[in-house]
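Input record, target 12 of the design panel.
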């Protein structure tokens, strides 16, 4: 009896798969590469060969496993929705798809929303400016119905399972020592603390009623900085008292469906906030996640080591065009390749220090990129830019730098070890839940870079173009 050629082919393929060496389940690696001239293109497939000798650039060690990755995101701000509203409906959908679509976009799955005004609100406000309304009778998210909630719901058309966490730039002004939106300290009054705890609970409950998966609140954005935009100073001991004696018990008693986060911390001194709060057993039990940004990188490894049970998040990537540096441009954001290189390195550094997730700041801005700080204009970068004059959508290099991580690293992935055999170390690897490996690399030089990769008994060689980002998908 003659066997079908199809059956014979299938049997041959099955036998071939069975005898593949350990390390890879297929014979090729898929390569995606970005240069400034040619962003996000296929580099083709690379052959897998048997590893021989010791002449390797890096070695991937699947057995050395670190923290689980929860995902990637960015911040919903009023100025972002205002910029998107300039575009045609088709262009606006293109932008949202580029950020959130789980098939073709950056696959953002965890995002931040300000509770009240941030520095990228259209103007200053909170969700309850009725003085001494300790029972939050006048609490309202009506203002958010104009920009933030439509922005979130538009994103949810592409990502229905989008998770939202909120953070405060300024509490209601009557809760602050200066009675203003900008600066001042949080009042150290137990009645104020209790009202603020209720304020945060009401935020979660109101957003959840909108069908939004608002699942966490961070107490205060950057509590050690007084600025010319919505902000508020807190000491570490105020944080401790508020979490331990007020918001923790209130959330528990009220049955609030939401987490309490310690953050967002931008200070390099870990003793100020994580150590003070988390070393207290009563306060510690209420905290699920600690958020870090800016100089907070220096506290991540310490927190990971001492409190391995806590989730850690990089809560706001640096916005670039820093006003304290020589390249500062007061008229426009740079949004250049150098900023993409800088951001790529920040993402790598934070994951290597131990975070579970990484957040962009503004996802979309107009071409001016300015905040509501009128005293010191600071045009900031964004992955997507809307040009008001031409009404066009611009993808900046940073968008692709970030997408080289977020597109390939799936929720539930684990950071795994990449060992360099020389000075070059611009590579980081993650093993996805399906067993596949995403190897993300950067060549920040002006010359091609040959990289010889070892994984167990197999090897792959790749030549990275000058000034490029690459992601390899290894089966």
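The sequence produced for target 12 reads:
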């Amino acid at each position: 009896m003659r066997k079908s050629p199809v059956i014979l082919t299938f049997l041959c393929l099955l036998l071939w798969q069975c005898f593949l060496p350990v390390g890879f389940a297929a014979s090729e690696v898929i390569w995606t590469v970005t240069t400034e001239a040619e962003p996000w293109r296929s580099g083709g497939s690379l052959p897998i060969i048997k590893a021989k000798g010791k002449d390797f650039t890096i070695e991937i060690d699947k057995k050395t496993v670190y923290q689980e990755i929860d995902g990637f995101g960015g911040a919903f701000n009023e100025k972002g929705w205002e910029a998107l509203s300039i575009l045609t409906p088709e262009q606006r959908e293109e932008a949202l798809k580029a950020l959130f679509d789980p098939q073709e976009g950056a696959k953002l799955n965890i995002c931040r929303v300000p509770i009240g005004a941030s520095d990228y609100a259209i103007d200053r406000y909170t969700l309850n400016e009725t003085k001494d309304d300790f029972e939050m009778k006048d609490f309202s998210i009506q203002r958010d119905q104009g920009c933030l909630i439509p922005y979130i719901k538009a994103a949810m058309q592409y990502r229905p399972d989008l998770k939202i966490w909120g953070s405060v730039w300024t509490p209601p002004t009557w809760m602050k020592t200066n009675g203003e939106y900008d600066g001042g300290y949080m009042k150290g009054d137990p009645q104020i603390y209790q009202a603020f705890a209720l304020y945060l609970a009401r935020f979660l409950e109101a957003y959840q009623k909108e069908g939004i998966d608002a699942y966490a609140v961070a107490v205060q954005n950057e509590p050690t900085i007084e600025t010319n935009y919505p902000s508020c100073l807190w000491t570490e001991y105020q944080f401790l008292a508020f979490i331990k004696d007020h918001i923790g018990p209130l959330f528990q008693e009220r049955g609030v469906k939401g987490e309490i986060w310690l953050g967002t911390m931008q200070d390099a001194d870990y003793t100020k906030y994580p150590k003070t709060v988390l070393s207290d057993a009563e306060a510690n039990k209420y905290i699920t996640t600690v958020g870090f940004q800016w100089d907070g990188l220096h506290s991540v490894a310490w927190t990971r080591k001492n409190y391995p049970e806590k989730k850690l998040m990089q809560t706001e990537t640096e916005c670039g065009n820093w006003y304290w540096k020589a390249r500062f441009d007061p008229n426009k954001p740079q949004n250049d390749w150098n900023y993409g290189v800088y951001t790529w390195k920040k993402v790598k550094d934070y994951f290597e220090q131990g975070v579970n997730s990484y957040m962009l700041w503004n996802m979309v801005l107009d071409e001016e990129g300015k905040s509501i700080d009128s005293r010191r204009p600071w045009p900031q970068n964004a992955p997507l830019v809307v040009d008001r004059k031409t009404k066009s959508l611009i993808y900046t290099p940073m968008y692709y730098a970030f997408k080289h991580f977020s597109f390939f690293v799936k929720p539930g992935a684990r950071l795994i070890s990449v060992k360099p055999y020389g000075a070059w170390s611009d590579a980081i690897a993650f093993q996805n839940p399906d067993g596949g490996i995403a190897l993300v690399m950067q060549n920040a030089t002006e010359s091609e870079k040959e990289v010889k990769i070892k994984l167990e008994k197999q090897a792959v060689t790749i030549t990275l173009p000058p000034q490029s980002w690459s992601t390899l998908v290894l089966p």
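DSSP finds eleven helices and 21 strands in the chain.
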